[in-house]
Amino acid sequence: MGSECGRRHTRTGEVQRSSDCWKAARDLGTESKEAWIAAKRAEEQQVAAEWAEQFDMPPLDGPEKALAWGERSRHQLVTAAYSALVSEGTWDEADWAVLEDKIRTVDRAGWWIDQRDAEGSDLPELLDAATSDDTGTENPFR
After folding, report:
1. Nearest residue to 77 (alpha-carbon basis) of 106, 45, 118
2. Interatomic CA distance for residues 74 and 116, integer angstroms
3. DSSP characters for the chain?
4. CA distance 127 to 106
């Protein structure tokens, strides 16, 4: 935004950028915002992948473009559920282990994406409502 970004004074004496300059600044901000969002998503994806490996979560099934989003959604909802039910709630690790086994049965990425705005404390009920279309046929109890 060099010399092409001339300034002009309005009637009130305020300095105003030309509309071309404003658009260039806005677009630069958009690219910057998009880069930040992409970096944030990559970081979230890395954390979700490490979590899935650590807790032996099965890979999700679905369209390629939905898999990463589904993995991030699953990670966020399950960790929120653990926080609400165990860390802050009344569940013990044995209760959680039963729920974790149910979590492993839902392997459809779209299901996790659909639940992305749910409260963590609602996960047990949501899992009970999952249909056979949402669960895989492989044995989750490896």
Report:
1. 118
2. 8
3. --TTS-EEE-TTS-EEE-HHHHHHHHHHHHHHHHHHHHHHHHHHHHHHHHHHHHTTPPPPBS-HHHHHHHHHHHHHHHHHHHIIIIISSS--HHHHHHHHHHHHHB-BHHHHHHTTTS-GGGHHHHHHH--TTTB-SS-S--
4. 8
**Which amino acid makes up residue 142?**
R
Location of structure tokens 């807790």:
55
The contacts of residue 119 (CB under 8 Å, 6+ apart) are 80, 84
pLDDT of residue 38: 87
**What does the pLDDT look like over 54-107, one tens digit per residue?**
999 999 999 999 999 999 999 999 999 999 999 999 999 999 999 999 999 999
